[in-house]
Structures are given as C-alpha cells and as structure tokens.
Amino acid sequence: MEYADGGHHSTAYRIADLADRRDEVERIAEKRAIDRQHAKGKLTARERVDLLVDPGSFVELDQFARHRCTEFGMASNRPYGDGVVTGHATIDGRQVCLFSQDFTVFGGSMGEVFGEKVLKVMDLAMTIGCPVIGINDSGGARIQEGVVSLAHYAELGRRNALASGVIPQISMIMGPCAGGAVYSPAITDFTVMVDRTSHMFVTGPDVVHAVTGERVSTEALGGSATNSEVSGNAHHRAVDEEDAVDFVRTLLGYLPSNNVDGAPEFADETAPDLTPADLELDRIIPDSINQSYDMTEVIARIADDGDFLEIHAGFAPNMICAFARLEGRTIGVVANQPARQAGVIDIDASEKAARFVRFCDAFGIPILTLADVPGYLPGVDQERHGIIRRGAKLIYAYSEATVPKVTVVTRKAYGGGYAVMGSKHVGADVNIAWPTAEIAVMGAEGAVRVLRRRELAGLDGPERAAAERRFVDEYRDRHGGPYTAADRGYVDLVVQPSQTRLQVARAFRLLRGKRQVLPAKKHGNIPL
Ligand code: HXC
C-alpha cells in the first residue's frame, strides 16, 4: 500500500494498521477459536456475545490489551484481548455490561490483564447501574501469573459482593469452569449451565483423585445435572447454548436494571372479570387432603397470559420460585409444590426460597406466596445437616423483606410451614385463604395421635379405627379450615378460588405505595 508521506506515521498507515490489528483479533484469532470451540460443540466467546445481545449493539473494550507476564515462555505469546472479550451492549433495547471468557487462550484463565478488563467492565456496570452478565469458560486463576491471578479473582469476588443487591448479576457457565471461575458466579444472582458442555467444580476430577483418592467423572462431579438438581449451584439447566441465551434474555425482561429503577412494565391487558381459567381454580383442590395437585396450574391461572419463568426448577422441586407478571408488572412467586414430597419444606427448599425472596426484596419486586405446606421435613438426615439453622433462613428472609407481600393459603398451612410461608406474622401485607385452607399446628391425623393417645391406646381393631376417624373429623371441624385464623385477623380475606387472580391483583395495586423502613443497622446476620 502507498502512503502519502511514505512512512508509518501517516494517517493512512495508522488506519491500515488498526485494520490489521482488528483483523488479527476478529478474523485470524476468531478462526482459530472457532476451530477449537466448534469441535467441542461450543460457540466462541465472540459468537456467544453476538447471540446474546441486540444485533450491532456490542461495543468491545480493551480489545488490544495484552498480558505482561514473562514467566514460563509467556513473553513470546501475547495474544490481543488476553482471553476475555469485554464490553457493553443492549438486550431488548436495555443497557447491559458483559464479559465473555475465551477458553482457547490460556484456557480462559484469569491473569492480571484479563482481570483488569473484567474489573473495569464490572465497575462500569456499577457506575451506570445496569445488569452484568459473565460468560464463563475458564480454568480459573492463570497458573503462570501466580498470586497476581489470585489477587484479581479476589478483587472480582469483592466486586460481585459489592454489586450484590445493586445490579442484577448473571453468570453463564459455558465450559469446564474451575476455581475462581466458579467462586465468582456463586456470588452472582443467577447461574445458567449448558447440558453436557459445561461443568463447574472447585477442582477437577484429577485433583479430586490426587487429594482424596476418589474416582469421579467430570459429569458426575460438576455436570449440569449435578449442579442444577443436587448442589443447587445452577439456577437453570439449558439444553444447549442457544437455550441458555434464551433463558437469560427472558429473565432480564423480568428484572429492573438496578435497585433504584423499577422492572420493565408491560401493557395491562388482563381480563377485569372472571375468566373460564379463573373458574377452573374452583375445581383444583381434591376432596381428599392426601391427594396432590400441581401448583404450577394455580400460578398459570394467576399470571398474565399464564406465563411464568421458573428459577431453580430442577433443585428442591417441592418449592417453586418463579417470576411472573400481574397487570403487566413483575412479581416473584414463592409456592409450595404439593405434587412433590407434598410440598414439605426441607433444607434445600428453605435455602432456595430464602435466596429468591432476598433477591426480590433487594430489587423491589413484590412477592406472591402460595402456601400448601405440611410443615418442615422431619428426619435424622435433615437435623444433622442443619435444618434448624438453614430452615430459619426463610423466616429471616420473609421478615426482613419490605416489598409488598401477598399470600394465598390454598390448602394445608401446618406448623412452621404456616408461619414461614408468608404469614401475617413474618410481615405479609395481605393474607388470603381459600375455603379449602387448613391452618393448624399439624394435620388432623398427627394431632389426634398426640392428643388422644391415651384414649386410643385402650381400643383395638375396628373400634380403634372408628374412634380415630371420629377424633380426626372433630379436629378438622374445630381446628382445620381458615376460620380460626380469620377470626384472629391472621387471614384478611377468605375467597372463592376463582376470585384469586382478581383479588391478588387488587392487593398488589393497593400496595404500590407501600413504604417500610427497617431499624437502622450495618447489616443483619442471616444464619448461613
Ligand atoms: C493456565 C490453563 C489453566 C489455568 C487450563 N489451562 N487451566 N492455563 N492456568 N488455570 C490451559 C491448559 O494448560 C491448556 O493449554 C488449555 O488451557 C486447555 O486446558 P485442558 O486441560 O487441555 O482442557 P480440559 O481437558 O477441557 O480441562 C479443563 C480444566 C483443566 C478442567 C479447567 O484445564 C483444569 O483442571 N485446569 C486447572 C484448574 C485449576 O486448578 N485452576 C486454578 C484454580 S485456583 P494448552 O496450551 O495445552 O492448550 C483459583 C483460585 C481462585 O482459581 C481464587 C478465588 C478467590
């Protein structure tokens, strides 16, 4: 190429030089990344960003940053970008900041410059108050850069902690993530994994074997099933990367950009009168207390368009956490699921719901609670694993939540389950019960076994069975039902199930102006 002054200081040379550098990053390096990533069924860091954001909206930052490490022969290998793509873009027209780790450069590991880039984009997100999305595909701290890598991971953890409750933070796990690449996501609000191609562990199977002698496959140790159903580290298990991106885009549609702004509002097109779907709720509760039904059917009949997005669906399925809209506005739904373990609250269910309630409260999202709960799960295993301490989290979370809270008791609300599932006593604003509600310390059978033990012990066979039936009926007549609680004002309204959508909408409308201030303190001390 000819340059006006024939030298490399000319404008034309510099423009051409920029094009060359861009070509190195966006075509040559990208081609290498495509070859490596596609062979593993994964997209590249750049392709993932393109899939996630509005077309043409991504502005990449620090594209030409390079590491400064001279150890382990690194001086001769200084790729542009240092293994992470960072920048800002829009999703459905709303601003987000993001970083996407490139596994094809030093295993997507975080060194000093990589860290500086990620911290910079986190700081930008905090400055402007927008969600930050981290796409993780990384071996964690870059071994060659030693303590500097650790320092930057710790700095990232601090950024995550300080951003918690200020801007929504979403992590996408898109490869074999280890070390800091999983600690940081663990602090964020939502973590999405992809089936088969993504893994999360503090240390991989080789280190596990070296340290403990255990042999375990990558999938069993940190696959998407393990993390979304057993450990609960992942809030969504996507079938592929496109599905993961769809989930994140949908999720963002329910969330405000920060803890000051409101969530996006949609047109209120909800029916002002009873609909056929509303009337179906009058038939949803089975006559037998021991028979189950699917609580998602209730949620679908309350939410706008019957739509809701379940969070943590595979983990503790006895508790449902979901985002939905009512009259075009986001609400968080916490509900027992009688179709799974009768909707009992175990450790996992308590922690799942507590974290969701705290997220909603931090971001001003009103909470609808649907209760049908036989209580906390008894058992040696649960006690040894700390159900006292971990079950208490849910009481704590509801009690400190100052957002509008509306509760509907559809059927059982027994014992601790009654108290914790959005009762008046933990601060709910409007409490509704269906006539099918049974609010009591425990179920009638259990109560009779305790209260009538001596009388029953003196009887045998059919005589004992008949007496037991009579006592159970007596107990249910006197202590079951919603009316003892309604008599005390613990329940504000007893409504026919078909009226629920309209009454809940009216309650949240009533509460739009709610202001509640908690006692001043540095911070509380939730039992961890
Ligand atoms: C530098 C790394 C790396 C790392 C992987 N690579 N992890 N380079 N630092 N941490 C490089 C590999 O050398 C290899 O380079 C390339 O990335 C691909 O790695 P493979 O091992 O071939 O890939 P795979 O078989 O898919 O295994 C992925 C993996 C494994 C499970 C992540 O690489 C692994 O176990 N890495 C180490 C994980 C780890 O212990 N990290 C440190 C954690 S300490 P070449 O050149 O061969 O392609 C930490 C503390 C944070 O993170 C503190 C937070 C507060």
* Distinct ligands, ions and cofactors found in the model: hexanoyl-coenzyme A
Largest sheet: 8 strands, mixed
Number of DSSP strand runs: 17
Q: Helical content, roughly? A: 40-55%
Number of helical runs?
Answer: 20
Strand content: 15-25%
Regions with pLDDT < 50 over 5+ consecutive residues? Answer: none
Mean pLDDT: 95
Shape: elongated
Report the oligomer: single chain
Secondary-structure class: alpha/beta
Kindly, what is the distance between the CA atoms of the first and last residues, rounded to a whole number of angstroms? 65 Å
Radius of gyration: 27 Å
Domain CoA carboxyltransferase N-terminal: 8-267
GO molecular function, one term: propionyl-CoA carboxylase activity
EC number: 6.4.1.3
Keywords: Ligase
Helix/strand layout:
Blueprint: H1 11-39, H2 45-52, E1 59-61, E2 84-91, E3 94-101, H3 112-128, E4 132-136, H4 147-163, E5 169-173, E6 176-178, H5 180-187, E7 190-194, E8 199-201, H6 205-212, H7 218-222, H8 224-230, E9 236-238, H9 241-254, H10 276-280, H11 295-302, E10 308-311, E11 319-326, E12 329-336, H12 347-362, E13 367-373, H13 380-384, H14 387-400, E14 405-414, H15 415-420, E15 430-433, E16 438-440, H16 444-451, H17 453-457, H18 461-479, H19 483-488, E17 493-494, H20 500-510
Parallel strand pairs: 3-4, 4-5, 5-7, 6-8, 7-9, 12-13, 13-14, 14-15, 14-16, 15-17
Antiparallel strand pairs: 1-2, 2-3, 10-11, 11-12
The structure holds hexanoyl-coenzyme A (HXC).
Hexanoyl-coenzyme A binds at residues 106-107, 109, 139-144, 150, 153-154, 157, 176, 178-180, 183, 203-204.
